């Protein structure tokens, strides 16, 4: 994902004090949004639109890669419903439909850019941890009865 400029308002709030109580409406919204955007298709569509700008449906599908037409339709509709994507229908024959990120969608892309930067910063540590885990798994080959406590 292309690096985006951080949102100054969010950065200012991030540096501020953590509130003593969480608004249950905000907590519910965060859980809802994470559930929707944390799937790979939403993030890949977000990335494709951020990198390529406005795309037609078929172009978007190609940019995302290996996504079914049904899943692409469902995902862009959900993103449109949440205000992340703008769908523009041009009254021509055959119909021409464009998809573009809204300012809200762009700001979400900037937020996920932080995850990208985190991964970029810590990728070597993650690879070492994965290798250590794999190595430990190979050396811990134990009989099934010992693990389950069975005889």
TrEMBL record:
One Pfam family of this chain: HxlR
Highest taxon, organism lineage: Bacteria
Transcription in keyword set: yes
Annotated HTH hxlR-type domain residues: 23-127
Any one GO MF annotation of this record: DNA binding
UniProt cross-references to InterPro entries, sorted A to Z: HTH_HxlR, WH-like_DNA-bd_sf, WH_DNA-bd_sf
Endpoints of the signal sequence: none
SUPFAM superfamilies in the cross-refs: Winged helix' DNA-binding domain
Assigned keywords, A-Z: DNA-binding, Transcription, Transcription regulation
Protein name: HTH hxlR-type domain-containing protein
Organism encoding this protein: Methylobacterium gregans
């Amino acid at each position: 994902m292309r690096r985006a400029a951080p949102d100054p308002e969010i950065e200012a709030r991030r540096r501020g004090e953590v509130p003593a109580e969480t608004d249950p409406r905000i907590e519910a919204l965060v859980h809802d949004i994470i559930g929707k955007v944390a799937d790979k298709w939403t993030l890949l569509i977000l990335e494709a639109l951020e990198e390529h700008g406005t795309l037609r449906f078929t172009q978007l599908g190609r940019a995302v890669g290996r996504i079914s037409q049904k899943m692409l339709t469902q995902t862009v509709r959900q993103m449109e419903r949440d205000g992340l994507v703008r769908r523009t229908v041009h009254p021509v024959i055959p119909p021409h439909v464009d998809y573009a990120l809204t300012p809200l969608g762009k700001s979400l892309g900037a937020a996920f850019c932080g995850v990208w930067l985190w991964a970029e910063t810590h990728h070597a540590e993650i690879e070492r941890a994965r290798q250590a885990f794999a190595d430990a798994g190979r050396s811990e080959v134990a009989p099934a009865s010992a693990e389950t406590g069975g005889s």
